[in-house]
């Protein structure tokens, strides 16, 4: 059975919709509860048995240093202080971070064109000899299951596949916002229609998002000269090329996909996390209920 040991997590952008906070910290370090979004992506990989993670950070910023500090600094001064105060248990979440599998942080190659494919190309040397590897966009978070695990299990059931993409069903009212999946007769990927302007232009109710399993063959098409819409280097363009030369499997997510791509959706994602994972969820619900009553008076 072919193995999938490595993951690339991308956070290579300036996140202008989040300014001014992203002037100082990378977007994937915004908190979801007490954890940054990036950590939730790492945990999804760990749950799937990934052994090495490559985080691709935005160049010409402090992002690489911030990720390196978060995942590798032992914070011994903090541990000593908590031990002294009799609060050693508060350091346990830090120990969990320090015990993650190998995490390597690199910067995106600044010479590559703009586009969501460039971070993957930047990490090529780390994965080019693998059977396959997974890619996660840190904007996209999955609750309730690991899409990475689903991608790997799907690939291992059909190891000749060129790639696997994660999908989820979307209501018709949202089709114009996303890339909608067109299927071949055998149920594999044909192509993706980006943001269809009207429902009749959407080939299905399945949308693709930032969870992919790719084979190194993708680098035959994911090259700086193969730019597409708006002169950007698009991952989905390379995946479509793979689909022309073999099967790209379509795996339906077993979790709940939410995006942190903009402040509104970030808040919705944070709210879901709080309601599902904290001991103060009832208080948040009560506050919202009271606000609703106030509005309706």
Give a written overview of the molecule:
With 297 residues, this protein is α/β, with parallel strands linked by helices. The protein folds into 2 domains: 256 residues, Alpha-Beta Complex (Spore Coat Polysaccharide Biosynthesis Protein SpsA, Chain A), CATH 3.90.550.10; 35 residues. The chain is built from 10 helices and 13 strands. The protein is globular.
Q: How many DSSP-defined strands?
A: 13
CATH fold-level label of the largest domain: Spore Coat Polysaccharide Biosynthesis Protein SpsA, Chain A
CATH architecture of the largest domain: Alpha-Beta Complex
Q: Just give the CATH class of the largest domain.
A: Alpha Beta
Computed CA radius of gyration, to the nearest angstrom: 20 Å
């Amino acid at each position: 059975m072919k193995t999938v040991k490595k993951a690339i997590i991308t956070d290579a952008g300036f996140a202008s919709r989040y300014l001014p906070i992203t002037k100082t910290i990378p977007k994937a370090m915004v908190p979801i509860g007490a954890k940054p979004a990036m950590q939730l992506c790492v945990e999804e990989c760990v749950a799937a048995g990934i052994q090495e993670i490559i985080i691709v950070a935005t160049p010409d910023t402090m992002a690489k240093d911030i990720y390196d500090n978060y995942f590798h600094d032992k914070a011994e001064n903090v541990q000593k202080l908590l031990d002294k105060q009799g609060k050693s248990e508060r350091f346990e979440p830090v120990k969990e971070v320090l015990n993650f599998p190998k995490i390597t942080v690199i910067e995106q190659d600044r010479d590559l064109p703009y586009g969501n494919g460039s971070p993957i190309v930047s990490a090529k040397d780390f994965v080019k000899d693998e059977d396959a590897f997974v890619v996660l966009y840190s904007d996209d978070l999955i609750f309730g299951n690991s899409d990475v695990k689903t991608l790997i299990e799907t690939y291992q059931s059909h190891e000749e596949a060129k790639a696997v993409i994660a999908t989820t069903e979307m209501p018709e009212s949202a089709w114009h916002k996303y890339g909608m999946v067109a299927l071949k007769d055998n149920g594999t990927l044909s192509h993706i229609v980006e943001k269809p302007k009207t429902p009749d232009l959407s080939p299905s109710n399945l949308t693709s998002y930032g969870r992919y399993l790719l084979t190194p063959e993708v680098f035959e098409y994911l090259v700086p000269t193969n730019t597409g819409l708006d002169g950007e280097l698009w991952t989905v363009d390379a995946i479509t090329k793979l689909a022309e030369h073999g099967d790209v499997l379509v795996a339906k997510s077993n979790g709940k996909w939410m995006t942190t791509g903009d402040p509104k959706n970030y808040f919705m994602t944070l709210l879901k996390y709080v309601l599902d994972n904290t001991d103060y969820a009832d208080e948040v619900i009560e506050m919202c209920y009271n606000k609703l009553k106030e509005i309706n008076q």
